[in-house]
Design a protein that fits this description.
The protein is mainly alpha-helical and 245 residues long. It has helices at residues 2-27, 31-34, 43-88, 107-123, 126-150, 152-155, 160-187, 190-244.
């Protein structure tokens, strides 16, 4: 039962993440992550060092590195598949749906997503990337939940659950934006300000690109339909002339 397994996977993963977070915060002071030359990215390794020593610090650091790499690969291939499906449905440009001859993977989508991620990695630091990614992901969750609610009859879904997800996503998005605004006002952090500027720009470009692509696709389909209708009319005229002869 794939739908049930998906729900259980999300629940179990969420519980594990929360337990690890609580244990990390309980094992060490938050000052270790905020003062001086502290690195919040090594939170798990810092929490494990008092128990496992320096070897534990290195081990947890490598584990976190591999975990991040696997999550990146999953996000990369998942995002490329989303781009491929959108191109197949005519929402974005058709060349994104091209598949490689041997492996049958959407290589153009993968290259496009990889290039976009590489540009962000070069232009922004990890704090700015995580802040921007958080805003974008919450927006994506809200869009998916709202789409599921609108199409609930077609996909045979319960409308209550998608609407709850949509409302919670909006609440999370509002809290995230409010937090970053307060950080800019209180501390004047450039990272939060840049995220707040880039976020609406990315959303606007996404809507604009989808609108233009759908418009061009609709016009192209109309031209194809007109050509097909003209061909049918010519065939009817030819048949009529042959009958008259």
């Amino acid at each position: 039962n794939i739908p049930r397994s998906v729900y259980w996977t999300i629940i179990i993963t969420t519980v594990i993440y929360l337990l690890v977070s609580f244990c990390t915060l309980a094992a060490t002071s938050y000052l270790n992550f905020t003062e001086g030359d502290a690195d919040p990215e090594f939170a798990l390794a810092i929490a494990a060092e008092p128990i496992l020593g320096y070897a534990g610090f290195i081990l947890i650091s490598f584990g976190a590195l591999f975990s991040t790499a696997s999550a990146f690969n999953a996000s990369l291939y998942g995002s490329s598949r989303v781009v491929y499906v959108m191109a197949r449905e005519g929402v974005i440009f058709n060349f994104f749906k091209k598949l490689s001859r041997k492996a049958r993977v959407p290589y153009i989508s993968i290259l496009a997503i990889s290039g976009f991620v590489a540009i962000l990695a070069i232009a922004l630091n990890i704090e700015q990337i995580t802040q921007l990614a958080g805003l974008i992901f919450i927006s994506m969750f809200a869009a998916v939940c709202f789409s599921c609610f609108v199409l609930r009859k077609e996909v045979e879904a319960n409308g209550i659950i998608p609407m709850i997800g949509f409302i919670l996503s909006l609440v999370g998005l509002g809290v995230n934006v409010w937090y970053q605004i307060t950080q800019v006002i209180k501390e004047g952090t450039a990272g939060n300000l840049l995220s707040l500027i880039l976020f609406p720009v990315v959303i606007l470009l996404a809507f604009l690109g989808s609108f233009l692509t759908i418009k061009f696709s609709t016009e192209r389909e109309q031209k194809v339909q007109i050509s097909a209708d003209s061909g049918k009319v010519q065939e009817v005229k030819s048949e009529t002339k042959m009958k008259e002869v």
